[in-house]
Design brief:
The strands form three sheets. The chain has a seven-stranded mixed sheet. Strands 4-6-5 form a three-stranded antiparallel sheet. With about 325 residues, the protein is of the alpha+beta class. It is built from eleven helices and twelve strands. The protein folds into two domains: about 20-100 and about 140-320, BirA Bifunctional Protein, domain 2, CATH 3.30.930; about 105-135, no CATH class. The structure holds adenosine-5'-triphosphate (ATP) and zinc ion. Adenosine-5'-triphosphate (ATP) binds near residues 262 and 296.
């Protein structure tokens, strides 16, 4: 018997043995705070992480690396910011202006500084003394990659594979623990011919669920769309769904009825290839796809399913993570 009954039924859970989350239970976020797994900052979606939480993410990343070792993907860590011009060019502000974050800083002299301090003292808006810098916050781990690939010349005929990790920012404050403003994405990206890129996505569509099931988490795959902004966005979302350009691996964290997207599998067709002028050696525009693991969401799914005390997780799950 597991020390902690799983929150949601898995294929391994004998009938009647699971205990669905009690409706009367404390909200999951409060439980995470009370147990010290996440540390509140005073702002929704911005949290400290405990050592145990980070350890789970570290171990999960080792699993991903093991699973994808044979790919020989090039590892790159970009900082959580990217050039502002690249966000402008990427079209992110057209599709997701509501999520974007930019970095501003003080650039005035002594007189402006005095006014800035006076504004703070009066509780007035001091942000007017800040100006946009050359930097914006990275919204997805793969965004800084494409311009750097384009700058290196033609994409070789065998294609390119990258293994990326970055803290990402999205302005979507929420009390729902899986919707953070700062979170980490581990992304694998393929750039090459349409066939290479589609084959890459198929491979991960098999690997993703396999990995998650090893951790005894229930999961389902589904077609999805990005949260495109505004009225025009509805059409883009429908188009994305119709063409099955985005799949998500859903795991129950808050509820069985509305499981959370913990991995996404995106086929961009030639969107980034055209935008950044990434060409293949044969002169054709390169296609791309990315597979993103939401590291915090995976960790939260584990804490939700197996309990907030990692020592009490099922032996089988501990073995997969810690060996
Ligand atoms: P959602 O539909 O939940 O808003 P998304 O489709 O916008 O997510 P992607 O852009 O595909 O997400 O991002 C890749 C992965 O990053 C997601 O599958 C998810 O696991 C994670 N992720 C996205 N937004 C957040 C967030 N606000 N907090 C934590 N993780 C996130
Ligand atoms: Zn991506």
């Amino acid at each position: 018997m597991n020390a902690v009954p799983p929150a949601f039924p898995t294929s391994e859970t004998p009938a009647g043995e699971s205990e669905p989350a009690a409706e009367t239970a404390k909200p999951f976020l409060d439980e995470l705070f009370a147990e010290g797994v996440l540390i509140p900052s005073g702002v929704d979606g911005l949290y400290g992480r405990s050592g145990a939480f980070e350890d789970v993410i570290d171990r999960f990343e080792v699993l991903i690396e093991r699973l994808a070792h044979e790919d020989g993907a090039v590892k790159i860590h970009f900082p959580p910011a990217m050039p502002r011009v690249n966000m402008e060019k990427s079209g992110y502000l057209k599709s997701f202006p509501q999520l974007a974050g930019s970095i501003h800083s003080f650039v005035g002299g002594d007189a402006d500084h005095c006014r800035l301090l006076a504004a703070i003292a009066e509780g007035a808006d001091w942000s007017t003394f800040q100006q946009a810098t050359d930097l914006v916050l990275t919204p997805a781990a793969c965004y800084p990659l494409y311009p750097t690939v384009a700058a290196k010349g033609a994409v070789p005929e065998k294609g390119l594979l990258f293994d990326l990790k970055s803290y990402c920012f999205r302005h979507e404050p929420s009390k729902e623990p899986t919707r953070m403003q700062f979170f980490r994405m581990r992304e694998n990206v393929c750039i090459g011919s349409p066939e290479q890129v589609k084959e890459f996505r198929e491979r991960w569509l098999e690997r993703g669920p396999k990995l998650v099931r090893l951790l005894e988490l229930p999961c389902t795959l589904d077609v999805a769309n990005d949260p495109f902004f505004g009225r025009g966005g509805k059409l883009m979302a429908r188009n994305q769904r119709d063409q099955q350009l985005k799949f998500e691996l859903l795991i129950p964290v808050n509820s069985v009825e509305e499981p959370t997207a913990c991995l996404s599998f995106n086929y961009h067709q030639d969107h980034f290839g055209t935008l950044w002028q990434m060409s293949r050696e044969n002169g054709e525009v390169a296609h791309s796809a990315c597979v993103g693991f939401g590291l915090e969401r995976i960790a939260l799914a584990l804490f939700r399913q197996h309990g907030t005390d990692v020592e009490a997780w099922p032996k089988s799950v501990r073995k997969v993570l810690w060996g």
